[in-house]
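Now produce a polypeptide, keeping tokens residue-aligned:
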Amino acid sequence: MTVSDPSSPAASPESRRGPRPRVLLVDDDLTNLQVLHRTLRTEDYDLLVAQSGEEAITQAQAMQPALILLDVRMPGVDGFEACLRLKSDARTRESVVIFMSAFDDTKERVHGLELGAVDYITKPFYAAEVIARVRIHLELRRLNHALGVTNEGLVAANLKLKRDLKAAAKVQRALLPAAAPDLAGYVFAWRYRPCEELAGDALNLFPLREGYIGAYVLDVSGHGVAASLLAVSVTHSLVPRPGVPSVVMDVTTGAIHPPSVVAERLNRLYQMTEQDERYFTLAYGVLDTATGVLRHVSAGHPGPVLIRNQAAMRIDRENFPIGMLSNVEYGESTIELLPGDRIYLHSDGIADESDPRGELFGQKRLHDELLSGRDLPLSRSIDNLIDAVVSWHGKSTLSDDVTVLAIERLARE
């Protein structure tokens, strides 16, 4: 029966619709139903009644009550069987079940809880206890439902965020060099290994005008979305495009700007603000492929490593990072690559990686690994270095982005 009073005719399901929680009272004793109804009718509940386990199941399937007060001992389908069937049905699984029994038997209570009930009320009823337990469990159900909705929203938002991050990472990787320049007498190679989905590192290798190649590695402070957005923005500023003003060259005359001037222009474009205190370091060079001369600026970035014969040398000239201070004048270095030389531009994620004890990989190990790969193909020498850093760290996921760009001037045969 679905009645607002145990002795009144059944009410239609339409009259039950509304925000009030539905509570189903189940007992084969009509007197007990009347007592329960009188106890709860002052609460803001939509009260339903049933006088058997079978009727309780039918009622619950049709009306899906928020809570069921269920007598244990009833003829035919008893409370335990009713609870088992209710918890096995997707339509009624979420209904909170509180057993009622005149017997205070521990084994019986445990059995009921194992079937999915949340509480027990002992007969004879105490009105205040019934009201309190029903209130508590309805509130817990409401909170669990709200938490479930929130969690579903968080899961959906997290999935969307992961999709967006993958899409952004794909865009970021698309800005890497598509292929190495095909230049007689030179080999180029690079590796780009973010420590997260998105990187604050970037690199590129691009033709300026005939006979000249531009190359850079940059490292934005921090990680994640904000760092990657700045890295992408700087990438667009550095790579020349037809008809678009560029910091690296005059697109009208074809004049190539010196690396120091490029750093100064970027410093004016990307000054830190109170809202965004990010800055970036930069290693940028222009290679004259005819002479092997590389003009280079390191703006707060590790100096490139030159491998010549059996020696490793760091070409360093201290400058401030880009965006940290205004009106900075940047100095540059000039390196002549001789046949057989290799030069490596790299991010600080290599030397600054630590082992489990906290010891840094360091510049010496970096030099030693590059020297040990001296006779390997250029790309394999970079892999050799990164493998050594991963082994040193002891985990496949590194603490910082790792970026390496290398140029080799081939020895004359």
Remarks:
- The radius of gyration is 37 Å.
- Confidence is low (pLDDT under 50) at residues 1-18.
- Residues 129 and 275 are 56 Å apart (CA to CA).
- The chain has two domains: 13-148, 175-409.
